[in-house]
């Protein structure tokens, strides 16, 4: 019987593969032109179920969209403006959360912390149940579709179906602020 041994070289290769995959999935931008260029490559949802708008409006009193943000983050401003349109169209509450809360949520769900913005849908009555609907900014129809899918998942639809449908997050995130090498400046 052969035993499987993970050598340091194999572990390094796996880590390198994860790093390459992460870099391929995360697109940090600092200016609006770069953000628009990446966003132009993202497909827009065009087909919706017949009950889509009715269901989103009827769920407005039960759910909230919360997003992380940081000052000067171009994709954060873009996502926020699209969430405000979502709020106006469907009546949902929308609010921001702090970086610490965002990191805790990402960790709870096993998501790597990629930066801002990240948006979640959660039931108003249960702050511990949430579904991410955007990692980075996205098109308005995609955000609405993901919110619809999140409500379906939170009310019992098979999670695998919703996760597969939402698995194409854009990853268009803001550039992280440089950290100071001075311990007092951190």
Quick summary:
The chain is an alpha/beta fold and 186 residues long. Helix content is 45%, strand content 15%. The mean pLDDT is 82.
Describe this structure in words.
By secondary structure, this protein is α/β, with parallel strands linked by helices. Helices cover 45% and strands 15% of the residues. The chain contains seven helices and six strands, in the order αβααβαβαββααβ. It has helices at 8-25, 32-39, 52-58, 74-90, 99-108, 140-154, 159-166; strands spanning 27-29, 63-68, 93-97, 118-123, 131-135, 172-174. It has a four-stranded mixed beta sheet with strand order 3-2-4-5. Strands 1-6 form a two-stranded parallel sheet. α6 (140-154) runs antiparallel to α7 (159-166). The longest helix is centred in the N-terminal third of the chain and has 18 residues, at 8-25. The chain is globular, with a radius of gyration of 18 Å. The model has no long low-confidence stretch (mean pLDDT 82).
């Amino acid at each position: 019987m052969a035993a499987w041994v993970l050598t340091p070289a194999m572990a390094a290769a796996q880590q390198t593969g994860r790093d390459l995959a992460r870099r391929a999935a995360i697109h940090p931008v600092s200016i609006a032109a770069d953000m628009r260029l990446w966003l132009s490559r993202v497909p827009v949802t065009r087909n919706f179920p017949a009950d889509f708008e009715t269901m989103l409006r009827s769920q407005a009193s039960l759910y909230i969209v919360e997003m992380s943000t940081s000052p000067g983050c171009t994709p954060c401003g873009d996502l926020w403006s699209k969430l405000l349109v979502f709020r106006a169209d469907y009546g949902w509450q929308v609010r921001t959360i702090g970086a610490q809360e965002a990191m805790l949520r990402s960790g709870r769900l096993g998501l790597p912390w990629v930066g801002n913005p990240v948006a979640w849908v959660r039931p108003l009555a249960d702050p511990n149940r949430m579904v991410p609907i955007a990692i980075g900014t996205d098109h308005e129809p995609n955000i609405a579709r993901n919110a619809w899918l999140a409500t379906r998942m939170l009310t019992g639809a098979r999670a695998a179906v919703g996760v597969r449908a939402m698995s194409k997050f854009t990853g268009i995130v803001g550039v992280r602020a440089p950290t100071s090498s001075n311990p007092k400046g951190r």
